[in-house]
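Query structure, 167 tokens:
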């Protein structure tokens, strides 16, 4: 805010940002401490970062249209899939992998719905933002969720492989 008038955070914005960072850090510590492999810990880091970036970007500028676009609320479904999937899987690597891949697919589905079914109108529409840019940015976000799923899949394979050696 010292260098540009485009950013105008209030005290509440700083509290929300601090809460998001604290929550992401706490989530990482609580989930990663039960890990027995680097791939699992890295999967937790990538998954938590994906969730943090999703919420942060959605609050800051919105993921489709502007932050005023009501379709951006649909992205909470991505977090719900990831969180509910993680709890149902009891944080085991294979289940976590499925949860993260599910979050990636949900991300793609939400993006399609938000862009082509529930199109923004009025103040929520941003005609200067090109469709290719929105699709590209959302593909990167979905890719981050998929990368977390791949890391958890590797952690599961490492667990299975080490179990075969012990038997």
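Result returned for the query:
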């Amino acid at each position: 805010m010292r260098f540009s008038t485009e950013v105008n955070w209030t005290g509440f914005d700083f509290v929300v940002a601090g809460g998001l960072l604290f929550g992401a850090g706490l989530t990482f510590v609580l989930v990663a401490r039960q890990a027995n492999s680097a791939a699992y810990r890295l999967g937790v880091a990538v998954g938590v970062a994906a969730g943090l970036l999703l919420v942060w970007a959605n609050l800051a500028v919105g993921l489709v249209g502007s932050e005023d676009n009501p379709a951006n609320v649909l992205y909470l479904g991505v977090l719900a899939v990831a969180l509910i999937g993680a709890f149902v899987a009891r944080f085991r690597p294979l289940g976590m992998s499925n949860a993260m891949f599910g979050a990636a697919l949900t991300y793609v589905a939400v993006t399609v719905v938000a862009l082509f079914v529930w199109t923004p109108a009025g103040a929520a529409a941003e005609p200067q933002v090109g469709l290719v840019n929105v699709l590209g940015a959302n593909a990167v976000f979905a890719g981050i969720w998929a990368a977390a799923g791949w890391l958890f899949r590797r952690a599961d394979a490492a667990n299975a492989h080490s179990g075969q050696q012990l038997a």
